[in-house]
UniProtKB/TrEMBL annotation:
<keyword id="KW-0723">Serine/threonine-protein kinase</keyword>
<keyword id="KW-0547">Nucleotide-binding</keyword>
<keyword id="KW-0418">Kinase</keyword>
<dbReference type="Pfam" id="PF07714">
    <property type="entry name" value="PK_Tyr_Ser-Thr"/>
</dbReference>
<keyword id="KW-0325">Glycoprotein</keyword>
<keyword id="KW-1003">Cell membrane</keyword>
<keyword id="KW-0808">Transferase</keyword>
<dbReference type="GO" id="GO:0005524">
    <property type="term" value="F:ATP binding"/>
</dbReference>
<keyword id="KW-0812">Transmembrane</keyword>
<keyword id="KW-1015">Disulfide bond</keyword>
<dbReference type="InterPro" id="IPR001245">
    <property type="entry name" value="Ser-Thr/Tyr_kinase_cat_dom"/>
</dbReference>
<protein>
    <recommendedName>
        <fullName>non-specific serine/threonine protein kinase</fullName>
        <ecNumber>2.7.11.1</ecNumber>
    </recommendedName>
</protein>
<keyword id="KW-0732">Signal</keyword>
<keyword id="KW-0067">ATP-binding</keyword>
<dbReference type="GO" id="GO:0004674">
    <property type="term" value="F:protein serine/threonine kinase activity"/>
</dbReference>
<dbReference type="GO" id="GO:0005886">
    <property type="term" value="C:plasma membrane"/>
</dbReference>
<keyword id="KW-0472">Membrane</keyword>
Amino acid sequence: MSGMAISLTERRNDEGTEAKGLDLPLFDLGTVADATGNFSIESKLGEGGFGPVYKGKLEDEQEIAVKRLSKTSVQGVDEFKNEVVLIAKLQHRNLVRLHGCCIEGEERMLIYEYMPNGSLDSFLFDEAKGWLLNWPTRYSIIVGIARGLLYLHQDSRLRIIHRDLKASNILLDMHMNPKISDFGMARIFGGRHGSKHQESRRNIIISGKKNRGIYDSSRSLNLLGYLVDEAIGDSYPKAEVLRCMKVGLLCVQERPEDRPTMSAVMLMLGSDSALLPQPRQPGFVAMRGPLDRIPRRASRTRCPSTM
C-alpha cells in the first residue's frame, strides 16, 4: 500500500512516546488527504462517535475508510493510542480490519478496510433496502456478529467489551458478511472469559425496528407477529426465528448473572437441540403510543411474556 513505507516503531524521537511499540503501518497526512479528496463532503461516509469517517482510494486503487478523530473529541492521544494497540492485535473475519493509522501534528486517524455495503442500519431502517435482507441473510448476520463478539470476549489474546454495539457499528462487506467496527469504547477486561455485561441488540435484525419502545393499542402482545419484519415475508422458519428472539431476550436480562456468555450464545444459535433457559419476565415494559399520544412519562407496566 502506498504511503506506508514506515511503521510506528520507526517514528522520530519527538513522537516516539506516542508510537512506541506499535508495529503498524503509518500513513502520512498528505497520502490520506489525497485519498479522500482533502476530506471532501463527497467522500464523507458518516459521523462516528469521535469524528467523521471518509471513503478514500489510494494510488494503488485500494479503497479505504478513514476515521478522523475530532479535534474537540474527549478521546485524547492516550485513548487513541489504546485504540490503535487494541485493534492492531485483533484479527477475525467478523471484525473490520485495521490497515494503519496517521499520527501527525494534531491529526489522529485510523485507516480501515472499506465496506462497500455500508452499515446494517442502512438496510434495517430503510423500507426500500430492507427487502434485500431475507431471513437466511439476517440469520447469517446474527451468527456472524455473535462469532465476532465471542472472539472479542474469549478467543482473542485480549478480553474486550465493545460497549457500543449497535446496527450502525455493524458493517457489511460485498457478500453481506457482518464485521464489527468502532472500538472507541472498548476496554480490556483482564482474566475474565466471556463477559456477561455485553447486551445484545440482536432482535432489531429480526424486527427492523429501532429501540423506541413497544406500542400496541390493544395491549395484547403477539411477539412473533409484532417483531418479525414485514420485509422478511412469510417464508421464514418460525422455530429458528423464535430461537433467535429468545437468545436475544436472554442477552438483555435485567440481572447480569442471567445473561449467557457468547460461547453459550453460539451454542444456542447453532443447535436446534440445545435447551434454552426460559427468559425471566422484564422488570418493566415501557408502553409508548404515537407521538401525539405520548404522555409526559411513558407508562410502566409489568407484563407477562407471550412468547
